């Protein structure tokens, strides 16, 4: 779940400043690394490093990012490693000079890596599937053998990318002297939206981004979502072209975007994330009313921040007081996307502090957006008890997470998921709660589809184990588990140098 941005603006503008601001709005999508690449028509300029956007880019680095065309990336690693060498965007000089930023996960990376080496004669410098995607795109462009690109050349290259690459990918690329290219996998699993801004000079600037908040914060009008399988080209003169490049595109957005990943003020595939979460709360309230008639509840308390939208309708429909019982430390990042179990555990109590007044002597219903590994839930239940709660119950706005996610979310191992091979009573016992209740998957998908009836089945593999790309085998699941479980991450961290010199890169 990375954040990506691509932008073409007026020749006299500095694109880096707008990219910086747009990336701040999607910082929640990736906290590990950040990068910006720009182009002045003659040369590419690239700056990237590990860390938050505000930490990576100081005034000196921003001055070095020249030009009116650019792409940006906030990284959340699910493939490759956490090394700063794998910060994005990635760059290749042949053909033309291309950079690319990618959100998602390719599922046939091993096959593509072999093809790139043996057939395409391309060397990869990292283990990142994003570098694989870039080189496949670059190779397909090079196959045209042209000194100057046309839109047809780019559309043809993206068509072949869809043919060769499997999995989830939303990508923005920049081609030296040409412009910005954005494309989305044929199932539309990862989001990509386009907006425009009419300048007083008559020039129309265009922006591509993972979420609509990047557009609106920069004063861009939302045009539409990039469709599954579609390629959008914005040349450096501000002309825009688009074409469907996949044979059988279907819209199957990741339902976890609406549960947790996206900001509530975003619109994804024409669906308001906020309204979708309200509907999740309404359907969950109905289930609580049906199945927990015997449970006497005094107060509904959300676990900040993403569960607030669901907790409000639950309290309203059940006729129970809604209270803010936890204060969130704004300077602690999202615990779910932290790189290891130990880091997640140590951050939870630093992140949340209870208000004892709201817990003392009460039967408390805690509402969370989802329960994945159980780290947060277990500690928060204990915090509620320590604050004086009589009984503690948990309601999850999402169904039980029982299966690995292979499309860009860090859930590589089923054994690390608390709901794996456990029923609700066992989960409640494991996290120390007096009861746990989950959303039904059908209700969750309906909460999303009500915002856009054109959406078919959502990508919900972490809930139902159905991998829509049709290429996921037990062997593949075992391989990613071995590479990306928390034990493997610890080994990767130990293998990295203790200190890394902060890099400055210019291509």
What oligomeric state best describes the polypeptide chains here?
A: single chain
CATH architecture assignment of the largest domain: 4-Layer Sandwich
User: What is the CATH top level name of the largest domain?
Assistant: Alpha Beta
Strand segment count: 22
Overall pLDDT metric? 91
- CATH overall fold name of the largest domain: Glutamine Phosphoribosylpyrophosphate, subunit 1, domain 1
- Poorly predicted regions: 498-507
Rg for CA atoms: 23 Å
Total of DSSP H or I helical runs spanning 4+ residues? 17
Biggest sheet: strand arrangement: 3-2-4-1-10-9-11
- What distance lies between the first and last C-alpha atoms, to the nearest angstrom? 26 Å
Kindly give the count of domains: 2
Estimated share of beta-strand residues: 15-25%
Q: Which structural class should the secondary elements be placed in?
A: alpha+beta
Approximate helicity band: 25-40%
Largest sheet: 7 strands, antiparallel
Q: Can you tell me the overall shape?
A: globular
CATH level 4 superfamily of the largest domain: Aminohydrolase, N-terminal nucleophile (Ntn) domain
